[in-house]
Amino acid sequence: MTATDTIVAVATAAGRGGVGIVRLSGPDAAAIAARIAGTLPAPRTAAYRRFRDRNGATLDSGLVLQFVAPQSFTGETVVEFQGHGSPQALQLLVAEACAHGARPARAGEFSERAFLNGRIDLAQAEAIADLIDASTAEAARAAQRSLDGEFSKRVHAAAERLIELRMFVEGALDFSDEDVDWLADRGLAERVAEARTALAELLVQAEQGRRLRDGYTVALTGQPNVGKSTLLNRLAGADVAIVTDIAGTTRDVLRENLDLRGLPVTLVDTAGLRDGGDAIEREGMRRARLALEQAELALFIVDARSGISAEDRMLIDALPAALPRLIVHNKADLASSTASLPGNDAVAISAATGAGIDALIAEIHRRAGLRVGEAGLFSARGRHLDALRRAQALLDAAAERLDERVLPELAAEDLRRALDALGEITGAFSSEDLLGRIFASFCIGK
Ligand code: GDP
Ligand code: ZN
């Protein structure tokens, strides 16, 4: 699968910068670049050149370097112009390359070529985009690990177990006429158990990776004046919400994207839930309800001095039924030591003093499925989880058939399909349609 055309794009971020890079990839990359920069330096060495248009006018000046196929990111010959980070000059360079026969790259096309040429697999290509888009340092580190092939390696390891299992089952089917009951072999049950464990562990890790990539939406809710805005400010570390003593101040829904110890969290401060009020307040209420429906966790704030009141209870019961909730007893600094301690599903904090905030953050991590302090996480996407869950369901189905010795031929087929599902993650088995959708979501120049 070798592309015959040469693509070009600005590889650095839109906007001004000290340095801007234009990247060419394809069979004519070196020839086109030589028309612009004159003779090119030896591969993998940089040389200072003037970049000129067809009339000899200087467009920019800077470094040029080439990577000869297949030793490059895309597996094709790649040339990079490192000019000044002027959006105008960079566009002129792209236009000049196009005048010499290159064409503008589509979104994600460099990564797509790297994938098609076998330089990286699909999960790694996605990790490039996830690294660029990472919203916390932890998410960036996880994406880097996926880019290094950490996730793919574990997918391969799980696939290896499924392959062994499948070979065992197919072998057993071949001998099924003879006296030996291969399916009764103790080794089979062990293999099934091992494959199941491997997939289950991978799924737990991938779920955490997906969480780091996609973040977690947490709604702050509770009666007016319990300290929602104060808590939002405490978690954000900046004064982002108006805090006053007058009930019902937070009229609109306020969203903050936070880096909560590595977990990207969208914190939504809903208007103090309260019936009645004027039109604006009712509109605020409507938006608050909507925000709650989209949240993944509700922090229901109560006043630690009174604990959960009858009114709180009503509001808690009115939360979307499927929405997980955590009761937060705030203003613990004002509560007497004899005040009733929060139960299992609750934490006590003081948004004003910061007491208990560490425990609250740890609990949010736990609810998000992140194991605190877990090292070596890799990034993953919803589509990976979906493929892993399908593989798991097929393995379970196969295990059941093998256990009951019912239609073991179908067990072999289930295992084959489970392997295909795993293959979708790394792209060993994926439709063009899927590939198109994945790469189209990248930005140009990637
Ligand atoms: P909201 O209506 O739920 O958003 O409540 P606010 O955040 O606006 O807080 C209402 C009042 O309670 C303000 O005067 C805050 O300073 C105060 N407050 C909030 N949290 C605490 C706390 O932990 N301790 C104390 N002593 N006061 C708090
Ligand atoms: Zn508020």
Describe what this molecule looks like in 3D:
The protein has 14 helices and 12 strands. With 446 residues, the protein is of the alpha/beta class. It has 3 domains: 114 residues, Probable tRNA modification gtpase trme, domain 1 (Gyrase A, domain 2, 2-Layer Sandwich); 131 residues, tRNA modification GTPase MnmE domain 2 (Four Helix Bundle (Hemerythrin (Met), subunit A), Up-down Bundle); 152 residues, 3-Layer(aba) Sandwich (Rossmann fold). Helix 10 links the parallel strand 10 and strand 11. The relative contact order is 0.13. The model has no long low-confidence stretch (mean pLDDT 89). It binds guanosine-5'-diphosphate (GDP) and zinc ion. Zinc ion binds next to helix 8. The site of guanosine-5'-diphosphate has 20 residues, from helix 8. Homodimer. Heterotetramer of two MnmE and two MnmG subunits.
Helical content stands at: 40-55%
Instruction: Assign an overall shape.
Output: flat
Cα-atom radius of gyration = 28 Å
User: How many independent structural domains?
Assistant: 3
Quote the average pLDDT.
89
Q: Which class best fits the helix and strand makeup? A: alpha/beta
Main beta sheet: strand number and arrangement? 6 strands, mixed
CATH fold title of the largest domain = Rossmann fold
For the record, what CATH class of the largest domain applies? Answer: Alpha Beta
* Spatial order of the strands forming the largest sheet: 3-4-5-2-1-6
| Low-confidence region ranges | none
Taken as a percent bin, the fraction of beta residues is 15-25%
The number of distinct helices, counting runs of at least 4 residues, comes to 14
The bound ligands are: guanosine-5'-diphosphate, zinc ion
User: What are the secondary-structure elements, in order, as H or E?
Assistant: EEHEEEHEHHHHHEHEEHEHEEHHHH
Query: What distance lies between the first and last C-alpha atoms, to the nearest angstrom?
Result: 19 Å
Binding site for Mg(2+): 229, 250
Binding site for K(+): 225, 244, 246, 249
Keywords: Cytoplasm, GTP-binding, Hydrolase, Magnesium, Metal-binding, Nucleotide-binding, Potassium, tRNA processing
Family: Belongs to the TRAFAC class TrmE-Era-EngA-EngB-Septin-like GTPase superfamily. TrmE GTPase family.
